[in-house]
Amino acid sequence: MSCSKRYIELMHKYLDHEILKDEEDELKQHLMQCKSCQSHFHELKRTEALLESPSHVQAPDDFVQQVMNKLPREKKSVSYRK
Amino acid sequence: METIIKQKIRQVKKGDQSAFEDIVNFYQNKVIQICYRMLGNLHEAEDIAQEAFVRAYTNIHSFDEKRKFSTWLYRIATNLSIDRIRKKKPDYYLDAEVKGTEGLTMYSQLSMDEPLPEEKVESMELNDYIQKQILSLPEKYRSVISLRYVDDLSLQEISEALEMPMGTVKTRIHRGREALRKKLRDL
């Protein structure tokens, strides 16, 4: 737990694609020696994978049509609003 | 893709409503997924997603073409979702921050971190389970996490979409991700 704060920060930077080259080297170096950070990193990457897994949620077939039906009529005239 | 979308937007701005159909077609799944991540209810997600597109259409003239259209559209969708969450707030709900704690919710008090009995995990759809864990986060983490993972937005894009300083986006993603790590590690 003690060494991790800085390295956990680097892990998140890595996951957000914001890590610099030498920070990445530093992180890799550390991960090779530290079991607890290694498993933390592993869990984070797994969480990422779970969150990125394609969603089963899809638009229903008539979604586009429903939206189109809700749009205000094609402007025949410009409407003035206060 | 962005160039085709930009072209369509120009047509819509000129009054060609049918060009908007292609825009809806292209973004519908992403928008519904973002709303679903935030609301956890498919019916509501579709409802809000529809409204988001209608708003995008009626406000298309305020869209600045130098910006990314998806970010602008997602902002409308997340704002509407947040409004919906706040409106339906029941008197008592598990998501509420426990007074005097920073980000602690009733869920955490119910020790959601405890691994679920095996048979329960098996019977539950993995996706539903993940969704449930996202819903147990306070809404401020939910929106950044939704945008980060549904469409792989960068921190910069999320910051633009939510009009939130980069530092805040970063902190919320990190905290949200850490919270989810704990909730999902026993899967």
Automatic annotation (TrEMBL), chain B:
The UniProt keyword set, sorted, is: DNA-binding, Sigma factor, Transcription, Transcription regulation
Recorded hits in InterPro entries, A to Z, give: RNA_pol_sigma-70-like, RNA_pol_sigma-70_dom, RNA_pol_sigma-W_bacilli, RNA_pol_sigma70_ECF_CS, RNA_pol_sigma70_r2, RNA_pol_sigma70_r4_t2, RNA_pol_sigma_r2, RNA_pol_sigma_r3/r4-like
RNA polymerase sigma factor 70 region 4 type domain location: 129-180
Q: Where are the transmembrane segments?
A: none
Q: Work out whether the entry's keyword set contains Transcription regulation.
A: yes
Which Pfam family, an example, fits this chain? Answer: Sigma70_r4_2
Q: Do the record's keywords include rRNA-binding?
A: no
Domain RNA polymerase sigma-70 region: where?
27-89
| NCBIfam families for the chain | PRK09641.1 (NF007223), sigma70-ECF (TIGR02937), SigW_bacill (TIGR02948)
**PANTHER family for the chain:** RNA POLYMERASE ECF-TYPE SIGMA FACTO (PTHR43133), RNA POLYMERASE SIGMA FACTOR SIGV (PTHR43133:SF60)
Q: Which family does it belong to?
A: Belongs to the sigma-70 factor family. ECF subfamily.
What is the designated name of this protein? RNA polymerase sigma factor
